[in-house]
Design goal:
Number of domains: 2
Structural class: alpha/beta
Helix content: 40-55%
Number of strands: 7
Radius of gyration: 18 Å
Order of helices and strands: EHEHEHEHEHEHHHE
CATH class of the largest domain: Alpha Beta
CATH topology of the largest domain: Rossmann fold
CATH superfamily of the largest domain: NAD(P)-binding Rossmann-like Domain
Strand order of the largest sheet: 3-2-1-4-5-6-7
Distance between the termini: 35 Å
Strand content: 5-15%
């Protein structure tokens, strides 16, 4: 990636976000980790990544439902490291309910964290990237940005919105050497997903392999989970010079789900 870059990864103390943070650090980027929990373990993760990869890291807590905190996260990173070169919007939550029963507060929270936070961080980061004459924005969307599922009205709406935001930002920055792309994972084996497997086994009376293949991955033709390392590797590629002419697009990592 050339000179040392500074990357912000939102929602990055577990799962996909942590995998992305580790992948960028492994390529020599300074990394700003983020979550809303602000625990000793969160801060220890930043120290661990710094020691493992010989890069500078920071942990900045921020509730991504709060527009001011979203923007302050970017400014804090810029003040600490002198630049914001890479922004990965990964923070997200989920709620499942029929549309007529969907709690208004849950709708507002899902839209705020999954969609609006990306708008606020992008808006704050773009001036820094323009001044530097280089930048990479990667929005972690979902297969649900391309396909719908019942009972996930807010999540599906938010992820479709992320793809629209991605295209718009890409067009606005097309002559600035700043790209904006989205990644659309299907089912990824994260600790959160792993924790759901025993309950699914019990509910369906199946062994682990069967419940994974026939229930959890029923829509994923490969019948295999994607991994956080694969998502991290794709982010690294999109941040490379080889990807300089890839902008405004969405890349699916879903084992063929959206090909159907």
């Amino acid at each position: 990636m050339g000179d040392t870059r500074t990357a912000i990864v939102t929602g990055s103390t577990s799962g996909i976000g942590l995998g992305v943070a580790r992948a960028l650090a492994a390529r020599g980027c300074n990394v700003v980790l983020n979550s809303y929990t602000d625990t000793a373990d969160d801060r220890a993760l930043a120290d661990e990544i710094a020691a493992e990869h010989g890069v500078a890291t920071a942990y900045v807590p921020a509730d991504m439902a709060d527009p001011a905190r979203c923007r302050a996260l970017v400014e804090t990173a810029a003040e600490r490291f002198g630049s914001v070169d890479i922004l990965v919007n990964n923070a997200g939550i989920q709620h499942v309910a029929p549309v007529e029963e969907f709690p208004v507060a849950k709708w507002d929270a899902v839209i705020a964290i999954n969609l609006s936070s990306a708008f606020h961080t992008v808006a704050a980061a773009v001036p820094h990237m323009k001044r530097a004459g280089w930048g990479r924005i990667v929005n972690i969307a979902s297969a649900h940005g391309l396909r719908a599922s019942p009972y996930k009205a807010a999540y599906v709406a938010a992820k479709h919105g992320v793809l629209g935001l991605t295209k718009t930002v890409a067009l606005e920055l097309a002559e600035e050497r700043v790209t904006c792309n989205a990644i659309c994972p299907g089912y990824v084996l994260t600790p959160l997903v792993e924790a759901q497997i025993p309950d699914q086994m019990k509910a369906h009376g199946m062994d682990r392999d069967t419940v994974v293949r026939e229930v959890m991955l029923a829509r994923q033709p490969s019948r295999e989970f994607a991994t956080v390392e694969q998502i991290g590797g794709l982010v690294v590629f999109l941040c490379s010079d080889d990807a300089a002419q890839i902008t405004g697009t969405s890349l699916s990592v879903d084992g063929g789900w959206t090909a159907m």
